[in-house]
Each structure stands twice: as C-alpha cells, then as structure tokens.
Design a protein that fits this description.
Two copies of one chain form a homodimer. Chain A is α/β, with parallel strands linked by helices and 293 residues long. In chain A, 39% of the residues lie in helices and 17% in strands.
C-alpha cells in the first residue's frame, strides 16, 4: 500500500510554480495576480482565503483580498466583480463561497469574466470542460487528476467509480476521468439514490469518494489492489483534538487502507492539492495559456 | 417486450406544439421562427435540413433556410451568424454540421448567441446542463429523455450504461441520466478503451448505445428485462433496398429485442425524436422560457 502524499506533492508543485514565476519576472514580465472576494465573516471561509493568500506568497504571486460586509447587496458585489473583470492587473479572481443567503450565487458566478474564472465555476468553463476544450478546471478535480498523474497511476480503460454528483467535485471529476486526454476510464457515478452502489464500488479499480459522509466507504466495498481517493472533509467532534474536532474523510481509512494499492489520507491527501490547483490556474491565466485575450 | 415508437411519439409532440403555436398566434403573439444555415451541398446535411423545414411546417413555425456556397469563408459565415444573432424575428437557429474543412467549427459555434442556440451546442448551454441549470439541451439526448418519460420507464436509482462518449450524444446523455431532475440513475459511460464494457452492459437496467458500430450490442450483453435505447444510425449496404443501403443501429435487434422490456427500433426510434426536440427547443426560445432576454 502506498500513501498518496498530497501535502508533499502540493509543496513540490508550488515550488515549480515559484521557479517559473521567478523566471518570468527576470524576463521583465508581470507578476501573476490573484484576487479573492470575501463577503461576511464565515469562519471556514476566512481560513480558506487566508490559506490561499499564503499559497500566493509561496508561488511568488501578488494577491489582493477584498473584504465586503455581510450586508453587502447583490448589486454592490456585482459591481465589485465587474471592477475585477476590467482590472488589467488582475489575472484571475475567486469569489469565496458560500455567499450570504440574500445573494443569488449563480447570478454572481455568471457575471465573473470566464477568462479570469480560475475556480472554474462559470458555465463557460464547465461547458468547455464537458466538451473537452481548454478551460479552467475546478480546483478539486484538477488536484485529483494531478495526484493520479504524479503517482503514475494507470487509469486508461480502468473502472472508476465516483461517489457523489456535486457540481464542484462529483460531476466534473467524472467528466475528467472519462476524457481521452485525462482519465480515459470507464466511469460510473453513484449517489444517494443508487441501488447498486456497493456492487459498483466492489468492481472498481479506482474509487473517488466525494459524498460527504464520514467513514462511508468500508473494507467490504473495496477490492484488493484498488486505488482510493478520499475527497471527504467532514468536521467530527474529537475530544482528543485541541480544536475539539477533526477532519474525517468519506473512507474508513484504517480498514480500507490495507486492501489498497494507493490511498489518500485525510487530512493531507486531496485537500492540499485544491489550493495548489488554484495556483496552477492563476499562472495559466497570467500566461494567457487558455484564453488568449 | 414493448417497442418504443419514436415516430408516433414525435408526431404526437409536434401536434401538441402546433396546438400551442395556434393558441399563441390567436392571442396575437409572434410565430416561432427557426433559421438553418447550410454551407455547401453535403447529401446527408441537405436531407436533415429538409426534414427540419418540414417539421417547422408541421409545428406552425416560420422557417428560413440560408444556403451558403461550399467556398464560403469562415469570416463570411461568422457575419451570417452575427446577423441571425441580431435579428429579432429569429428565435433560434442551427448551423448544420459538419462544416467544410477550411472552417473552424468550434470557432463558429462559439459565435452563436447561446440564447438562440436551439441545438444546445454552445459551451454556455453545455455548461449549464452540466451544472443542472435551465438550458437548451442537445436534441438527441433530449429526445431520449422524452421517450423514457412518455413511456413512463422508471430510471431513478437504476443502473444506466451509456455506450460512447461523443459531445453530442454520449456525454450529455450521461449527464441527463445522472441528474436528479431527469434520470436520477447510476450512470456508467463506456467507450472504445473500456476493459469491462460487456460486464457493465450485462449489469445494466438501461443501455443507451451511441457508439456508431452496427450490431455491436448482442444478446449475451443484455440482461432479461432491460431497456435498450439504440442511437446508432450507420448506413450499411443493402441490395434489397431501393437506395442500396439501410440504416443499421448499434444493437443486434432481432436477438436482443426478445430479452428486453422496452427497446427502440432503427429506424423509427430515437431518430424521429431528434428533430422533435429541436422543435421543442425552438418553441421554448420563442416563449423565452429558458433565457428571459
């Protein structure tokens, strides 16, 4: 059994990005610039945004954090986004989700210039990914694909089961694993209504669990030699932890791991790769690799 | 075994559309208007476009056919499309594919106003479908979903295997079958590189074959009581036919049909539903049901 080390992989990729940025600066090019918009003071969002700012520093990017009050109106937020769309210094930006309930999230997403949508959540990027065209791929699926590639895990023709059908993980993950240029796998998506979920898992060469239910995948659901990628990060109470909780994956790690050829831990598996993917997308935006204008 | 009659279903839907159009005209509203752009003189394309014009007549739509020479430049075609985008009388339009080789198809598609993209091929519509947002769904997948609904075939929680991963059938079909609002199935997509394709098919409650290989699905690949949807329409030589060929599906009908609870024939199954879906989308465009402006 090999433990897939997302933390180490993410650190290595950020160093590669930093080296490339340094070269670009030395050649007189502009420093990549990622902006983040944070509305309100949600604790989880504060932490995520803070980690993104730290990652920008590691990669040699300029970062801007725009804080808006909890009671910001939708129109004020849209104006802020239009400003970022039109700011030639900003290569990419993210709007930290979730937004306060009085704001229509989809309406906000639709206003983001897809050429600066480094989170890959705008319909144009989702559509271009579905169609196999160059695009910003959303961060978690891109991170998982990157892990599979770095660990040279064979995926072509393999049976890959994705658990969960969310817009930000399950669905794009399935599409990437399906495409000839990425996974090239036989892909099955299971969800809460799937009658044959356990059978599908038992037949899988690769399981990607993104269902948000702690310890959902048990040893009896995994075949010997499988590759298991755990996207779950549910906070569960833990008296032994200083914070009073710990992050728990969707996979019952202790009993599943011995059967696996490869498995990601939680934390330290998929999680660190997500921000790293955002950095990759920001560099690609600065280089105009995907959209030339 | 029940034969799913696409021809009859499509005719019934076109009558329903006609009745609604008549009501709208009586209420003083504008007649829905579908335009089609045909570049060159490909025999297949000529026939498809002709059938679309006939369907428009049946539905009470206005139709326009814009014919451009085989040697039309990409820029001339783009100008034509921009004209249709800006023509307030045109509710929706299609650009008949394939285009001559000197024209970049994707570039042409990107210029179509997604609010008039009744073929559902623009990235915005593909993306909105992936995200589960209202959109124009491409014609063949929408036709198949409509057939399943009209025949009240249960799909929720069932195992659905899609054979083929094309952008216009396999991929969008898989997405529709996955979504809670449509199929809500456990969905597996198989393709030419799938090692376990036959096993997947044998376990399937529903098989949707869109792989373009005549008689590919044989009786040993189908379980008793399965639902089989055949999207294949390969022209194969046939000395007994007046035209010298016949349309052959992806399913070996004679041996598979006896095992099925439901099956679509070729021709007369999925085929007639495709144009019918285009008519549904055009009516929706005229009613501004999906995009309000």
């Amino acid at each position: 059994m090999t433990l897939i080390d997302g933390k180490m992989t993410a650190a290595a990729i950020k160093e590669e990005i930093k080296a490339e940025v340094d070269q670009r600066i030395a050649a007189g090019q502009k420093r990549p610039h990622l902006a983040a918009v944070l509305v309100g003071h949600d604790g989880g969002s504060e932490a995520y945004v803070k980690n993104k700012v730290i990652a920008c520093e590691k990669c040699g990017f300029k970062s801007s954090l725009i804080r808006l009050d909890e009671d910001t109106t939708e129109e004020q937020l849209l104006d802020c986004i239009r400003g970022l769309n039109n700011d030639p210094d900003v290569d990419g930006f993210i709007v930290q989700l979730p937004l306060p309930k009085h704001i229509d999230e989809q309406r906000v997403i639709n206003v983001i210039d897809y050429r600066k949508d480094v989170d890959g959540i705008h319909p144009v990027n989702a559509g271009r990914m579905a169609l196999g065209l160059p695009c910003f791929i959303s961060a978690t699926p891109l991170g998982i694909i990157t892990l599979l590639q770095r660990y040279q895990i064979p995926t072509s023709g393999k049976k890959c089961v994705v658990l969960g059908r969310s817009n930000i993980v399950g669905k794009p993950m399935a599409q990437l694993m399906l495409q000839k240029n990425y996974g090239d796998s036989t892909v099955t998506v299971c969800h809460s209504h799937s009658a044959t979920l356990k059978d599908e898992c038992r037949a899988a060469d690769i399981i990607i669990a993104a269902i948000g239910r702690p310890d959902f995948v048990t040893a009896d659901m995994v075949k010997e030699g499988a590759v298991v990628i755990d996207v779950g990060t549910t906070r569960v109470p833990d008296a032994n932890s200083k914070t009073g909780f710990r992050l728990n994956g969707d996979v019952k790690f202790n009993e599943v791991a011995p059967k696996c050829e490869y498995i990601t831990p939680v934390p330290g598996g998929v999680g660190p790769m997500t921000i790293c993917s955002l950095m990759k997308n920001t560099l690609a935006a600065a280089k105009k690799e995907i959209y030339s204008n």
